[in-house]
Input
Amino acid sequence: MKIIVCAKQVPDTTEVRLDPKTNTLIRDGVPSIINPDDKAGIEAALQLKEKVPGSTVTVICMGPLQADVALREALAMGCDDAILITDRAFGGSDTWATSSIIASALKKMDFDLIITGRQAIDGDTAQVGPQIAEHLGIPQVTYAEKIDLEDDKLVVWRQFEDCCHIIEVAMPCLVTSLSELAEPRFMSVGGIVDAYNSKEVKIWSYEDVKDTLDEANMGLKGSPTKVSKSFTKEAKGEGILLKDLTDDEAVAAIMTKLQEKHII
Amino acid sequence: MSRDIYVIVELRDGILSKVGLELVGKARELADNLGQDVVAILLGLGIKGKARILIEHGADKVIVVDDPMLSEYVTEPFTKAVCTILTEKQPEIVLFGATSIGRDLAPRVSARIHTGLTADCTKLEIDDDSKLLLMTRPAFGGNIMATIICQDFRPQMATVRPGVMVALENDTSRKGEIEELDIKFNESDMNVKIREVIKSTKKAVDITEAKYIVSGGRGVGEPGKFNMLKDLAGELGAEVAASRVCVDSGWIDKECQVGQTGKTVRPDLYMACGISGAIQHVAGMEGSELIIAINKNEAAPIFNLADLGIVGDINKIIPKLTEALKKSKTLS
Output
C-alpha cells in the first residue's frame, strides 16, 4: 500500500504573543512545528504501514527550504521518503493555488491513500485537503477520528458536530485527519540518525511539476482570493464587575457577553 | 452576468440548521445593498416543507433538490448538486456554514468550479466602491484578522462561522418563490458507503485543546456539584476543568487541573465558577481569550482578571444559565 501524507510546517501559534504596546504579532522565537493534525496523519500512516507489509509512507510538504526540518522529523518518525515542493513562483498562493500545486506533484506519484491534516493552525482553513482531492478526482473523507483497513477498502470514522459516520471508501482516496486520529510517536535516536544520514529530502520545484501544473494556477497570480488587509484585534479592554444583580440579571449579563463574543 | 446571493442551507436530522437561517439573514442585508435577491438552496430528502421557513426568514427564492441520493450528507452527491445549480444560475456570492459539512463541501465546490473560497468568516460586508464582498476572518490562531477579496472569479464564496450572523425574525407575510430542481445523479456519484451513523460521539478531550472551558473551584463546595458544571459545559460545547483544591480534595481527576502545577490553558472562553484566583491558578489560565468569573466574594482576585465578573452564587446562577443556553438553541 502506498501512502502519501501532506504535511505543513507551521509556527506554533499557541506560542505567538501580541506586543501589548504596538498590538503587533511577536514572531521572534516562535518555534516551527509539524502541523498537529498532519502529524497525527503521519502517525496513522505509519500504523497502516505496520499492518500491511511492503507499504511505504511518503511525506510531502510545500513551503520554504526551512521546512526541511519538518520533513526530517517525519523521516525520523519512520516515513520512507520525503519531498519538499518549493519554488519562489509558488509564493503567495491561496488555498486554491496551493492545492493545485500539491495535486500537480501527487499526479506524478503512485498512491493508494493520501492523508492530509484537517486544517493547519496558522491558516485554519481546512480547504486544501478537499481541494486536492477534487483536483485529483478522487473521493475524500474529512474529519477522520479513526481509520481502519478491511480488505482493499478503507473504513473511516468521520466526525460531525452531533454524530459520527462510519464510512467505507475504495482507494485511491484522500482522508483528512483530526489530531485525535493518532497520538504521534516520538522520533527514535536511530530514526534521527537515518533522517540526516541515509535518507534524503528530495526538492521539487516548478520545473519538476510543470507538465502537470498550469502556470496560471499557482502563486499570487493563480490565487482567486487575495488578502486586502490584515490587522490585529483590538486590545483587550478593562473588565467589568457586576454586583447586587438578581440571578436572572446575572444570567442575562453572561448570555449577552457570550453572544457578543460569538460563542453562542 | 453573475447576480444574487445564494445560501447553502444545512439540515441535520431533517431540521434546518440555525447557521442556515443566520446566513439567510446576512444574505438579505448584502442583497439589499446590491439590489439583488437571496436564494436559498435546500438539499435533502423529504424536505420541501422546510422551504417556506426560509422565505419567512428572508429568502426571495428557495431551490429545493429532493432526492434519495441526498438523504444523508455525502460529499460527492452534494457537490454535484451544488455545482450544477451554481453553473446554471451564475450567482454573485455563495455562503456556506463553516460547519463540518460546509467545510467539506465548500472547498470541493470551489475547486470544481474554479473560484475562490474564504474560510470561517466572522464578518461580511459589501465594499462601497467596488461592490466586492469583503470577507473578514481570524487567522494565526486568532491572533490576527484578515480581510479577503475575490476579484476576478465568480461566485465569491465564503464559509461563515456559526453563531456570528443574526437570523431575521420570522415574518409569515413574506412572499417568495420555491423552485424544485431535478439533478441527474448516477449510481457512481455515491462513491462512498455510509455503514453506520452513530449519534453523539462526544468524548473527553484534553483541556489544553479545549475551545471553551467551564472551571470549578473551592466554591463549588462538593464533588456532586460538578455535575452542574458538566451540564453547563455540555450546553456550551465546553470541557470541565478545576482548580487545585478540587483535585486535591478528590472531587475531580488530576487531568482536569488548571494552574502552575496542573495544565496551562488558553481557550476562547474560560468560565471560572467559584474560583478565587490564586496566583498558581491564574498562571494556568491568564492567557484565555474571554474570562467570565462568578464568585460570592467581591474581593476575589479572579475579578481583577475577568472580562466579566459577577458577584453571586454559582449554585443559583449556573443552573439558570444552563437553561438559558438550552432555550437559545431551540429554533423559533
About this structure: Residues 2-217 of chain A form a domain with the Rossmann fold fold (CATH 3.40.50.620). Residues 48 and 117 of chain A are 16 Å apart (CA to CA). The first strand of chain A starts at residue 2 and ends at 6. The two ends of chain A are 44 Å apart (CA to CA).
